[in-house]
Each structure stands twice: as structure tokens, then as C-alpha cells.
Amino acid sequence: MDNSLSKYLILIGAIILVLGIFIYFFGGSLKWFGHLPGDIRIERDNFRFYFPITTLILINLVIYLIVKIIQWLR
User: Do 26 and 37 share a domain, yes or no?
Assistant: First the structure.
């Protein structure tokens, strides 16, 4: 295995750990996440449909910026 692959796996694990700790301690302040304007929600008697399009765009933007910062630091 390549040594750089192990570094990336450790980095991804550390990011997941930090996100988990953040959600554990500050989860109550993140109730707005997933209920942004533009998220599609349809609720009927026996049917629920939820498509968080705005939330997905926001997550995609954050991931894109993180990747660009990592590329810039290399």
C-alpha cells in the first residue's frame, strides 16, 4: 500500500471524529440543518417525501471548498 493513502485515511478518520464530537455537543443548535428554504417536503396521510436539495447544495459547496483548500496546501 502507498504511504500517502494511509495519511488520507487517517485524515478522513480525524475529520469524521471531529464532526461526530461537534454534532454530539452542538447537535441542538443544528436543528435548522435539513430544513432550509428550498428543501422539498411533501406529507400526505400515508406518504412522506423529503428531498433536501438546498442542504445538499450547501454540503457540496463545503466539501468542494475543503478539497480546494487541501489541493492549495499541497
Answer: no
CB 58 within 8 A of CB 36: yes
How long, in residues, is the chain? Answer: 74
Give the model confidence (pLDDT) of 20-72 as tens digits.
Answer: 998 888 878 877 777 889 899 999 999 999 999 998 999 899 889 988 888 88
- Structural domains in the chain (count): 2
pTM reported for the whole predicted model: 0.62
Question: What residues are paired with 42 via a beta bridge?
Answer: 49
pLDDT tens, position by position, 7-34 = 878 888 988 999 899 888 887 887 777 7
* Eight-state DSSP code of residue 47: -
C-beta neighbour count of 54 within 10 angstroms: 15
Q: How many CA atoms lie within 13 A of 37 on its CB side?
A: 0
Range of the domain at 5: 1-30
